[in-house]
Here is the input.
Amino acid sequence: MFITVCKEEVKLMKHFSWILRIFHIFVLYTWIAFILLLPASSIFSLQLYVLLNILFALVFTGLLITQIVEAFKIFKREDSEQCIKAFLFFKYSSLPTVLILLAIFLVVLLGGIGLSFVLLVLPATLFIAPFFFALSLVVAPLFLGMSFMAGLAGLSYAICLILLSRKQKGWKVGQCILHFIFQSIPGFDILDGLYITLRYWNRGKILSIITAISVILGLTFILFMRS
Here is the structure.
């Protein structure tokens, strides 16, 4: 009877964990949509827009801390199955946001710096050039930080998986460092994650097929557009 109750509690906790993970991603995409779409709207004043962004940041930070703690608990339980599932879920679901925010970071940084140099050439806009230069240096890192935050849950589970691989699969320190580096690079982390789960844990076969098909279709589309 006691064992049955414990099993039911474990199932409920797993379901609740997945609800939190899905809500985490939902809040992330809602926040990004709010940032990108609503500045052009006249519904919100600047003060309200900033306030709501702060609120989004606080909620997302709370959810992020929850996932980091959960990854630590999974590692302590040595629950490789849950770790792999959460790892793949966050890596795949957060990748578009991470890439979008990185693209915005580059556009704001390079665009702002480039525009400031152009304005320096024109006498009429000479005095506002430093403003755009400074603005790009201030705003761009915000998007870089958001990109890091967007991928941090997946990175936390990646670290959990790397540590479990060292503990249960006998990885060397060099392997752990190498895979940690790969897991820190958006895009490469997906490929490296699939390699880890397939090579060492015999998991993620369906996702590897989907990823391979997506890569082939993407390359085909790029080649078609060039031709």
About this structure: The mean pLDDT is 83.
